[in-house]
Design brief:
280 residues; alpha/beta; 10 helices; 15% strand
Length: 280
């Protein structure tokens, strides 16, 4: 049976009701999008601005995953993210927080500091799954490869994610705490990214909660002729609308306010959603 809801910090986001918006908070000096925040006060202000703009969840990361990025040690990543998570949790007691990491040590400390969700760009290792089960956390599992796949990419993504989801359930993680992300921009060529985006309905059909992260990605820049990541807001908006139409549950974005507009209109058309203030 397909999961009917996505549960984070006691909040049940009913699948198919509306699109959940995950705001990105990079606590790094080398974010590809140029929006990294290292100072604690700046990071908390950024989180506050995203919540006020309509983010449902904040995803905090301390290591860039852009092409050519420099690896960060566990100690340095912890030093970057844990104080921010604690401060954001103190400021916003009831709002969901995600930790963007694939390192078990960082995930454990982040959850202890107040995070609710692990968002791993390298799938679901046994160690990460054990931590998610132990801490009753939600786990976002992304498809990734060291090198682009030579075969049919959509089939590869679906096979890998379904296997990961089933393994997560076998290890005790409930279905409504497993989120699948096709990994746009990770281990794929630009053409393969487009193929995956054209087949999002097949990902949704697997039955698990789903997440899409296309925000400001280089493939969108190539298509739109936009070299600067901050100029790719409208290109990102196009993929967001397509994601809603396909049934994707959550979108991970830098530009929360613009995305809220996109999902509000798309959800109204596709999912019959209406704002609380709606009157005929």
């Amino acid at each position: 049976m397909s999961a009917r809801a996505l549960t984070v910090r006691g909040r049940r986001f009913i699948r198919g009701e509306r699109t959940v918006v995950m705001g990105i908070l990079n606590v790094t000096p080398d974010s590809f999008s140029g929006d990294g925040r290292l100072a604690l006060d700046d990071a908390v202000k950024r989180a506050e601005a995203q919540y006020e703009a309509g983010a449902d969840i904040i995803d905090i990361g301390g290591e860039s995953t852009r092409p050519g990025h420099l690896p960060v040690s566990v100690a340095e990543e912890l030093e970057r993210v844990v104080p921010v998570i604690r401060a954001v949790r103190e400021r916003f007691a009831d709002w969901p927080i995600s930790i963007d990491t694939y390192k078990p040590e960082v995930a454990r400390e982040a959850l202890a500091a107040g995070a609710d969700c692990i968002n791993s760009v390298w799938g679901a290792s046994d160690e990460l799954l054990a931590i998610a089960v132990e801490c009753d956390a939600t786990m976002a599992i992304m498809h990734n490869r060291e090198r682009p796949y030579d075969g049919e990419i959509v089939d590869e993504v679906l096979r890998a994610l379904l296997a990961a989801a089933r393994r997560a359930q076998e290890r005790g993680l409930p279905e409504d705490r497993i989120v699948l992300d096709p990994g746009i921009g990770f281990g794929k060529t630009p053409d393969q990214n487009i193929e995956v985006l054209a087949s999002l309905d097949r990902l949704v059909a697997l039955g698990y909660p789903t997440l899409l992260g296309t925000s400001r990605k280089s493939t969108l820049g190539k298509l739109a002729g936009r070299d600067r990541p901050e100029e790719r807001v409208f290109a990102t908006a196009a993929t967001t609308a397509i994601a809603v139409a396909a049934g994707i549950d959550m979108v991970r974005v830098h530009d929360v306010a613009a995305t809220r507009d996109v999902v509000a209109v798309s959800d109204a058309i596709v999912r019959h959603w209406r704002p609380r203030t709606w009157t005929e």
